[in-house]
Design brief:
Elements (H helix, E strand, L loop, with lengths): L1 H14 L3 H6 L2 H13 L3 H14 L3 H20 L3 H19 L2
Helix pairs in contact: 1-4, 3-4, 4-5, 5-6
């Protein structure tokens, strides 16, 4: 039960990025940070930065690019047998992709 609570807090923390952080830099800065974290296998930081970048993405091209990377992150979590973290990311990527194809 304790690990479930910790996992829930990690998921919430990843999706609720600090508002001030989003205002301090544009989406590209956070995207680059996320890419670096992902390349370094720092998945928690990559996820957090992708979520901040997503809040700043202004058009479908940017959102689509982020969706592709979020999907890659989800695949990495899934490969590490962490479906609890992978599934919400897959869902977010699908939502972003469908939003951009419907506009």
């Amino acid at each position: 039960m304790k690990s479930s609570a910790i996992l829930l807090l990690l998921i919430i923390a990843a999706f609720v990025a600090p508002k001030a952080l989003a205002e301090d830099a544009d989406w590209e800065t956070h995207y680059v940070k996320a890419e670096k974290a992902y390349a370094s296998c720092n998945l928690f930081e990559a996820r957090r930065e992708f979520m901040v970048a997503l809040k700043g993405a202004q058009d479908c091209k940017q959102a689509s690019e982020l969706a592709t990377r979020v999907e890659s992150l989800a695949t990495t979590y899934q490969a590490r047998d962490n479906n609890a973290l992978a599934q919400p990311l897959f869902k977010l990527a699908r939502k972003l992709k469908s939003k951009c194809t419907s506009t």
